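From the methods appendix. Each design record in this collection lists the tokenized structure first, followed by the designed amino acid sequence. Records were kept in a plain field format so they could be parsed without special tools. The example shown here is representative of the layout used throughout.

RECORD:
FOLD TOKENS (335 positions):
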């Protein structure tokens, strides 16, 4: 059996692009004990792997040149030499950018097909939905009557988070980039308070207008100047949950962490900022997935995907994450 793979041929300087990757094909050998062979159906486009291809190990551990590009995926087991998996099982996990993946059994998890379509295991019923759920309700401790600000609100995590905030009786404020994203949040998700950061040079004034009552919980997926403005908008005892810093991912080590600034705001408002990693909540994933699935079934939670066809188009889909554009969860359909 053959597999096609996208391998890293050069490290990124600035925004990622097609020439960083090389599409290759080779024959797979015999499957070793403890490993599982998976036909990859979908790949998840996520920002964090950009840090792994910067060429700077001080930012994050680097993928060696010539290796398969990392990435979450979902697919069907073809062959297994681990008793936890059998042919025909649906799985999701670290599969990499390829159409057939041989992986350690510890790198994948079973997907329950009764909860939703396979692709959802990479989004609303996977890392995106779980990140939105736990960052907002557990780390951020959002409560009914509070004001919640979400950056990158038209993306895979943000679009779910603003809806969860509303379901829990909070008032969501959203920041997005470009007319397409703003219209999506207003027309598709029914949000009233939406700010377009591409139309503003002064983020302080933008948030003062968008969030006149201030912010109790800020779910930050972006970092940078928007983070600074949100500190100014915090109400007393406000909470910032730092989920990502995508605004700096293409900047390199020199500009990756500008700040911190406006520390006095944290003191005066007795506010707090907490880093978030979804894996810390693994023991509670099952219950959260059941809740998310129920919201989807009832129509209380709206979920959308933007799917790019073809493994060869994965680099372009990955690059699109870092500029205003598609809404919802970004996926590549491999097969």
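DESIGN:
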């Amino acid at each position: 059996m053959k597999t096609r793979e996208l391998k890293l041929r050069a490290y990124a300087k600035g925004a990622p692009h097609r020439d960083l990757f090389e599409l290759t094909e080779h024959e797979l050998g015999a499957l070793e004990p403890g490993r599982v062979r998976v036909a990859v159906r979908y790949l998840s486009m996520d920002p964090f792997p950009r840090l792994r291809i910067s060429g700077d190990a001080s930012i994050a551990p680097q993928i060696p040149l010539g290796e398969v590009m990392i990435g979450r995926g979902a697919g069907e087991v073809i062959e297994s030499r681990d008793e936890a998996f059998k042919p025909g099982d649906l799985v999701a996990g670290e599969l990499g950018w390829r159409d057939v993946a041989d992986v350690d059994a510890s790198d994948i998890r079973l997907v329950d097909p009764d909860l939703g379509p396979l692709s959802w295991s990479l989004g609303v019923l996977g890392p995106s939905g779980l990140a939105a759920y736990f960052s907002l309700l557990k780390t951020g401790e959002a409560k009914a009557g509070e004001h919640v600000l979400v950056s990158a609100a038209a993306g895979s995590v943000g679009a779910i988070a603003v809806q969860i905030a509303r379901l829990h009786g909070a008032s969501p404020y959203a920041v997005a980039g470009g007319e397409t994203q703003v219209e999506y949040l207003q027309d598709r998700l029914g949000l009233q308070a939406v700010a377009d950061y591409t139309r503003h040079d002064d983020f302080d004034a933008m948030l003062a207008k968008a969030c006149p009552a201030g912010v109790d919980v800020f779910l930050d997926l972006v970092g940078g100047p928007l983070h600074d403005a949100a500190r100014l908008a915090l109400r007393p005892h406000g909470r910032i949950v730092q989920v990502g810093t995508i605004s700096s991912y293409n900047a390199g080590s020199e500009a990756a962490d500008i700040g911190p600034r406006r520390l006095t705001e944290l003191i005066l408002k007795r506010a707090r900022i907490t880093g978030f990693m979804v894996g810390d909540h693994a023991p509670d994933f099952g219950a959260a997935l059941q809740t998310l699935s129920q919201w989807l079934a009832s129509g209380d939670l709206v979920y959308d995907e933007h799917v790019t066809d073809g493994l060869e188009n994965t680099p372009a889909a990955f690059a699109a994450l870092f500029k205003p554009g598609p809404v919802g969860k970004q996926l590549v359909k491999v097969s």
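APPENDIX NOTE: The helical segments are 127-139, 158-167, 179-188, 203-210, 224-233, 263-268, 285-298, 314-319.
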